[in-house]
UniProtKB/TrEMBL annotation:
InterPro entries: Septknot. This is 7(1) septoil knot domain-containing protein. Residues 24-95 form the 7(1) septoil knot domain. Pfam families: Septknot. The lineage of its organism: Bacteria, Pseudomonadati, Pseudomonadota, Alphaproteobacteria, Parvularculales.
Length: 95
């Protein structure tokens, strides 16, 4: 692995706000199967702080929930998540 790689060994690219190439901002659809990312909702020690917005989810950690044409598909799980998220009212992004 190159030491110049922006992708950390845990799959996170903090500069580009990605996890294994998937955006951690944008239009998000909740699915029951075949997600891009498995997400566990936590109240402390998250990997990412998420703010739900109704439009323009341009910043890291801003999610707009949609029913079609998502940028990212997530599935909520209680164990073995890809990432842990905490929903916040302000200051989304990396903790």
């Amino acid at each position: 692995m190159s030491g110049n790689s922006a992708l950390a060994e845990d799959g996170y690219d903090h500069d580009a706000c990605l996890w294994n190439g998937f955006p951690l901002n944008g239009r998000v659809q909740i699915v029951e199967s075949f997600p891009d990312i498995k997400v566990e909702q936590v109240s402390s020690f998250p990997d990412l702080k998420v703010k739900v917005v109704s439009s323009f989810p341009d910043n890291c950690g801003e999610w707009e929930f949609v029913d079609s044409f998502p940028d990212l598909k997530i599935q909520y799980v209680n164990s073995f998540p890809d990432i842990k998220v905490e929903f916040v009212e302000s200051f989304p992004g990396w903790p």
